[in-house]
Amino acid sequence: MGKVLFVDDDPNLLAGIRRQFQRRYDIDFAGGGKAALEKLHSAGPFAVVVSDMRMPEMDGVEFLSTVAQEHPDAIRIMLTGNTDQKTAIDAVNRGHVFNFLNKPCETTVMTAAIDNALTQFKLRSMERDLLEKTLAGSVKVLLDVLRVINPIAYSRSNLLQPLAARIAADLGAPNIWEIKIATMLAAIGWMSVPEVILEKLFRHRPLGPEEQILVDRQPEVAYELIKSVPRLEGVARIIRFQNKNFDGTGAPESIALAEEDIPLGSRILKVLNAATPMDRTRRPSLAQLEKMEKSERVYDPVVLMMTRSVLEEFRETDLQEPVTVIEVQVGRLLPGDILEEDLTAPDGSLLLSAGSELSEFHIVKLRHDPKYPELSGTVPVTRYFG
């Protein structure tokens, strides 16, 4: 059972509530709005908050509106002797009050109200847990698909995620979880780009006009795939504007958005994507960052500065794992190995493309391939040693 917090400046009323309800509920008390906010932070979480309307310094509407912002999961009840229409409207609109109780309030009435509020809290908690599990499952499915279809883009995103999260944290972003997920899912749009174009990008070959259009559209494809997933609306928005220039130019050109109006996550992705080649190195380059710093109004200068700071810190640690290219027997390939050459069957058919970062799925799939027994010899791979 969740905890219940009673807030009132009348100590006699609080003493009476203690006598009536201390055996039925897990209860706590505060003598005013400011003291209650401190208690919510220090002794929370609370399932239900019951507050008087008329209190000095901070009235019930102001207090409950703050609770709604800082502790949105708590169910809010107002206890008042003033039931005028304006008080009720303010309480509902600003404090999102679940129930009103008139003073003096009979024990049976308050008991029913608190029981209903606790039930509502439980239902909301169950709904939130279900949404979080659905969200986690949806993200996992999308990432599993990306891992198989475009392992280069997947491993690149996997590398960039901690960088994006660190940059976001250093910039004081309130929604770091959205930026972390957006960094991973931003590459989903590459599933719409034909492999022949990906191969050109991988080998730094020029693209034709129509091929470039497909590449430029991949953020919009990712946005359309993700926007309807519950609780990923913000993530989809970050992904949609990842190619938007700081001055407002760039895709999507039909939407006017510039500078700080562009989501911070989009501005971070813009910088990290430009600093990180689409090849087997997949590491952000300080040299590339220096070139980007000379491009006026393309990148957010604050994000550029913070990215440089983070890359310089990561340069000697996370981004510089000991690495070597080795020849490996096909039967001894490991998850994390990156193919330096195409892996082909004796008949010339392609099994895995160069640049693929092998996962458990790839290795299991390879071993169940009818052509696997025919494979012999070695294949060059990049292997990281931690």
From TrEMBL:
<dbReference type="InterPro" id="IPR052020">
    <property type="entry name" value="Cyclic_di-GMP/3'3'-cGAMP_PDE"/>
</dbReference>
<dbReference type="Pfam" id="PF00072">
    <property type="entry name" value="Response_reg"/>
</dbReference>
<dbReference type="GO" id="GO:0000160">
    <property type="term" value="P:phosphorelay signal transduction system"/>
</dbReference>
<dbReference type="Pfam" id="PF13487">
    <property type="entry name" value="HD_5"/>
</dbReference>
<feature type="domain" description="Response regulatory">
    <location>
        <begin position="3"/>
        <end position="118"/>
    </location>
</feature>
<feature type="modified residue" description="4-aspartylphosphate">
    <location>
        <position position="52"/>
    </location>
</feature>
<keyword id="KW-0597">Phosphoprotein</keyword>
<dbReference type="InterPro" id="IPR011006">
    <property type="entry name" value="CheY-like_superfamily"/>
</dbReference>
<dbReference type="InterPro" id="IPR001789">
    <property type="entry name" value="Sig_transdc_resp-reg_receiver"/>
</dbReference>
<protein>
    <submittedName>
        <fullName>Response regulator</fullName>
    </submittedName>
</protein>
